[in-house]
Amino acid sequence: MTQRREWLSRIALGGLAAWVSPAARAASPAAAPRADALRLTDEEWRKRLTPEQYRVLRREGTEAPFSSPLNGEKRRGTYRCVGCELPLFTSAMKFDSGTGWPSFFEALPGALGFTTDYKWIFPRTEYHCARCGGHHGHVFDDGPRPTGKRYCNNGVCLKFEAEAA
């Protein structure tokens, strides 16, 4: 009976942690704000983004797997945040993870911020754009070498800029 109560308490606490709003988590003292930080009102974000971009980038949603054309993008170039155009990844950092989302084994220096997400009860590392705070995805420890990381990104949150030929 005691183990059951402990287990139910952990589930409840995990659910409570998931209720913490993105704004409240963003306000936590994780890192010093960038000099070029982009801070817009909710209304300004809604005008700037499509409804699906807004849902994922600003409300920490997830797009359907295999729905992004960027999942199969093979050209050389740079992947930028759709919210503020900060460069996050290069094509040299991309790999086919088979998960249905664009995946990268490394990010550009200073491009991302991290929080702990308890939406699925167990902790996951969530990452955001360091400039605008937009939610991009989660990082896992099952990626390829050299880093062993897999940055699993929602394609709707990325803007691809191909290199000139």
Kindly describe this structure.
By secondary structure, this protein is an alpha+beta fold. It has 4 helices and 9 strands, in the order H-H-H-H-E-E-E-E-E-E-E-E-E. The chain has helices at residues 2-19, 22-26, 42-48, 51-57; strands spanning 77-81, 87-90, 94-95, 103-104, 112-120, 122-129, 135-140, 150-153, 158-162. The strands form 2 sheets. It has a 6-stranded antiparallel beta sheet. Strands 2-1-9 form a 3-stranded antiparallel beta sheet, with no helix packed on it. Strand 1 (77-81) and strand 2 form a beta hairpin.
Concise synopsis of the structure shown:
This protein is of the alpha+beta class and about 160 residues long. Helices cover about 20% and strands about 25% of the residues.
Q: Helix and strand layout, with pairings?
A:
Blueprint: H1 2-19, H2 22-26, H3 42-48, H4 51-57, E1 77-81, E2 87-90, E3 94-95, E4 103-104, E5 112-120, E6 122-129, E7 135-140, E8 150-153, E9 158-162
Antiparallel strand pairs: 1-2, 1-9, 3-4, 4-8, 5-6, 6-7, 7-8
Descriptive labels:
alpha+beta, six-stranded antiparallel β-sheet, three-stranded antiparallel β-sheet, 22% helix
